[in-house]
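hey can u run this one w/ C2E bound, need the structure tokens asap thx
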Amino acid sequence: RAKEHGRNHYCFYTPEMSVGAVERLRLENALRGAVARHELHLHFQPQVGLRDGQLTGAEALCRWEHPEFGSVSPEQFIPIAEEIGLIGELSTWVLHTACTQLMHWDEAGFRLARLAVNLPMNEIEKADLVERVQHVLRRTGLEASRLELEITESMIMRRLDVAITTLQALHELGVTLALDDFGTGHSSLSHLKRLRVDRLKIDRSFVARLDDDPRDVAITRTAIALGHSLGLVVIAEGIESQAQFEILHREGCDEGQGYFFGKPCSAGAFFAHWSQQPIRADR
Ligand code: C2E
Ligand code: MG
Ligand code: MG
Ligand code: MG
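ok here u go:
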């Protein structure tokens, strides 16, 4: 790092730009070997029924623990992986690791109903996605409906026709589909009815100020009604407080996810906590 070399260190580039560019290049190079070096792992965040507080599933969130950079946020390394052509390998690893984890928990007598995985931006446009998902399911022996794939509106809007076809094929495969970060993209309501999704995840930007902005309550109420009228299960992301929880419960939201119920944590910690709790049997 230029900064660490002190002020007298000669640089032929401007320090401001160079730190970013050099850092970025080093991140890129480190990321190329991260899967092989076992630096990536998954964290798990609980999803909970708002009526009974019981565990309904979890979302798997990717973590990169680099010996030198420390823990790198997925918001930082997923876009890099996309740019340098690593995202296919990475998302296959995530899928496989998530399904394997669920099977391990089954064997340990902890039956988590469903595990959600985030699909990267243009994965939905790739011709072999359905085949890859099918392959992972076959290899791990996991029942398709227990794998949930999260997609965003912006992913779908890039190439709507391809996305609709792929979602239909995934639906036929039996996997559960969720629309993530709902309300932040710019899809129109007419598109929503054509998408074969099962679950709607209300983005946490609407949840964050629920307790002091009535407009967010209005938007959330509408999203819940919309989801329900399309036959979808509605889940709110980013619930951090009792007050947010109570409002969402009152508004009839089905499920919640957020620090209030549990932060994303390692497989071991997730098991230790949640395998002791009752699990809802109906899904
Ligand atoms: P996301 O799918 O919307 O995931 C939810 C994010 O919100 C996670 O951040 C989670 O840690 C955070 N979160 C959950 N509850 C709360 C809360 O109560 N308060 C606040 N402030 N935050 C909360 P994370 O793990 O940093 O992931 C960020 C994004 O990176 C994810 O957003 C997802 O889009 C992406 N991502 C994570 N893992 C993967 C992966 O394996 N593959 C792909 N393609 N993308 C991933
Ligand atoms: Mg997600
Ligand atoms: Mg989200
Ligand atoms: Mg997000």
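The longest helix spans residues 87-107. anyway lmk if its weird
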